[in-house]
Amino acid sequence: MSASDTDLATEKSSDKPAKKRGFPVFVLLPLIVFIALAGLFLFQLTMGNDPQTIPSALINKPAPDFSLSAVEGISRDGTPVPGFSRKDLLGKISVVNVFASWCVPCRQEHPLLEELAKVDGIQLLGINYKDKPENARRFLGSLGNPYSRIGADNAGRAAIDWGVYGVPETFVIDKEGTIRYKFIGPLSPTSYRDVFLPELNKVIAAGR
């Protein structure tokens, strides 16, 4: 092949379009993960207060067998507030609220628990979740104590048995110790009036 033929072949090969490389998917992977997590977070923010979005396997089943000691140093009207166990749920309609002093939404819903404690025919009980006694005392000392009994769930074991996703959560238990309703997330004035109270009144009306 002559030099001119070689130059011509080189020129023709340079005229061919370069083969396109596929876009490396791994470059987009962090963005995809971020979008997925952001979507999950947004879903929990917008839907977390709807008890139907995350169904509980414990609804219409007996409350778990548990026994929680009192939170040290907490009193009500000068009387020490005792802990409680499953047997304390029997014979009276109970509302069990899972809370913690470090939980900002718990502070937001607390005035509604003060109102809830005034409802006739129920007892309001608290499970203090992974909290320090001194912090729980300060929390209730500043906001008021609506609970007739408070159990210290220092390790979070009881919350697992109750199927708790996060604090706060609120359960309605009938006189037979059966869980009839679960509200996930903080109560708001609207959800308290339009969602929670109607469900509680159903249990009260059933009389069991």
Automatic annotation (TrEMBL):
One of its GO terms (cellular component) is outer membrane-bounded periplasmic space. It is found in: Cell envelope. GO terms for biological process: cytochrome complex assembly. The chain crosses the membrane at residues 22-43. Residues 57-205 form the Thioredoxin domain. Keywords: Cytochrome c-type biogenesis, Disulfide bond, Membrane, Redox-active center, Transmembrane, Transmembrane helix. GO terms for molecular function: disulfide oxidoreductase activity. Belongs to the thioredoxin family. DsbE subfamily. PANTHER family: THIOL:DISULFIDE INTERCHANGE PROTEIN DSBE. This is Cytochrome c biogenesis protein CycY. The lineage of its organism: Bacteria, Pseudomonadati, Pseudomonadota, Alphaproteobacteria, Hyphomicrobiales. The gene is cycY.
